[in-house]
């Protein structure tokens, strides 16, 4: 890829990664409730999955996923249910008497597979990758594996930086809500945000 191609790719990806979206909302919630350090394992899981899925689509092996409506529907259903479950766990944490007394944002500690599942069970993420490769690799034809891996790396690193920023923003927001009542309200807010993400992920089922 030329320097101009890389610049165009970054400009294409920047608003997708840094503007509010489902992935950002999830990691902002994790950052707020558990802290940025605790979010690192989930971030690692999400972005290892991002790299693998993106690379497979880039070399043509993963495109079949988005070509089969039943696969998309199953992924959308499972992904929506999983994020709804995350929302429920955060809601339970918000209702915890111990957390309320402490004024803390307690929630289950997310792990590597938490992050990986959020990516793997989100078919809309696959469509974004296909659009990216259609623009920067497959049109005009002739993109090779090396170029696909370069694009995959840029895409993954850009996403990772954005999600770390959002996790830090979530933690910064949580620091402003130290009283038990304020912390409880923020817990409910993030639980509601994750609930909205679950609905958004289920939208392919309604199409």
Rg over CA atoms: 18 Å
In percent terms, what proportion of residues is strand?
Answer: under 5%
Number of domains: 1
Low-confidence stretches: 100-105
Number of helices: 10
Instruction: Report the count of strand segments.
Output: 0
**Average pLDDT for all residues:** 80
Q: Which structural class best describes the helix and strand composition? A: mainly alpha
Structural overview:
This protein has 207 residues and is mostly helical. It has one domain. 79% of the residues lie in helices and 0% in strands. It contains 10 helices and no strands. The longest helix has 31 residues. The radius of gyration is 18 Å and the shape is globular. About 3% of the residues have low confidence.
Question: Could you list some keywords that capture this structure?
Answer:
mainly alpha; 79% helix; 0% strand
Write the layout of secondary structure elements.
Elements: H1 3-18, H2 22-34, H3 36-58, H4 64-67, H5 69-94, H6 97-102, H7 112-120, H8 123-136, H9 145-175, H10 180-201
Helix pairs in contact: 1-9, 2-3, 2-9, 2-10, 3-7, 3-8, 3-9, 5-7, 5-10
Short description:
This protein has 207 residues and is an all-alpha fold.
